[in-house]
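User: Fold this; tokens only.

Assistant: Input:
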Amino acid sequence: MPPPARGGYHMIQVNTKNISAFVPQDYFPALEADLARAQGWLQDATGAGGDFVGWVHLPRDYDREEFARIQAAAKRIQEQSTALVVIGIGGSYLGARGVIEALCSPNYNQKKKDTPNIYFAGNTLSADALHEIVELLGDQDFSINVISKSGTTTEPAVAFRFFRELCEKKYGKDGARERIYATTDARRGVLKSLADEEGYETFVVPDAIGGRYSVLTAVGLLPIAVCGVDLEALMGGAAAMMEICARGGADNPAWQYAAARSALYQSGKKIELLAAYEPSFRFMAEWWKQLYGESEGKEGKGLFPASVEFTADLHSMGQYIQQGERLMFETVVRFEKPLHDLAVPRDEADGDGLNFLAGKNLSFVNEQAMDGTLLAHVEGGVPNLIVQVGQNTAQTMGEMIYFFEYACGLSGYLLGVNPFNQPGVESYKKNMFALLGKPGYEDKRAELLAKLGK
């Protein structure tokens, strides 16, 4: 296992042994100069998109006063409400949901606990999905955390209209303003203006941090704190990894991961599959997909980020991974050991023939599944990177978030793109606004309707 870093935190290790047959042997030395340049751009904010690297030193420089207000607000929500509706889309919710499910369970709302249920809204335009959240809320006392820098993003803005109305009907306008928390721009925007007018408590979406890098700001921290996660431990893990990443060099795990991804991409791989053997990791993988897809997928470049949940997906995607087109490589996140373990029971009839596993810990069985799958996939032409982390704790999660963010910044610069913009996402929005009849889009609407044959 990796040796402990300072303060008892574990340094993430990246095992690249199982890509050696697929990339040049000197790929890392060949990339060192580019990595050093990218490192400087991140540390000094001098590269493309340098106005959006506020996350690089965030674990050291975060606003302590706001951090205390986040914790106080979380405690107030816990005392007032049995449910919190988190309204946001993309980076405004994926990171928080990923951490909550990873640390508190995908079945969090079904568990007996002293903390409120969490419902994520504003990430879809499905009427059925929104109606279901309203039904699930029922007569629970609830609070709202609406997250949007501008306040005009369609999905969360529409959802906020519904839940704000519901809150005001239930508690009156005075009662509602005590239960609505807005995470938005510090100075401007529709949501900031509304929050100031109505008297909602506000938290800041920092100017220098884009949504997909914002999970360790108020964007993610308030919902995470409401679920009882130790924010000090989460930020401590991120701070420990920040120190490691700041040093650069061949021992830096973010350099190792970014270099391996770059070499595999240059060798012809087009898809990166992020895999984990813990179902609770599913939404961390969803966060990772946005992080890498939105940061790298531009100018006709970039690995396509996908994810699988093993061992379940070995029974669905396993055939393609083993013998389909050789377009992909896998990055497997391996946790040190489970927080809870179980021994396989003995069955006297042994009808399933599994008594040879009786008495063995399930974690041991899972580990052998990992190793067996790795060997099969590598032999089948699928390179495997292993990201070895500690136990699934708040400290480890903080480490891992920062590690993936830093490696993403390096990867974007190695690819020759700006890792911190997303110009392509505006195209569908313009079409959607035109088709919905937004004022000012009349000519575009006529053009699109003609293309659709309507």
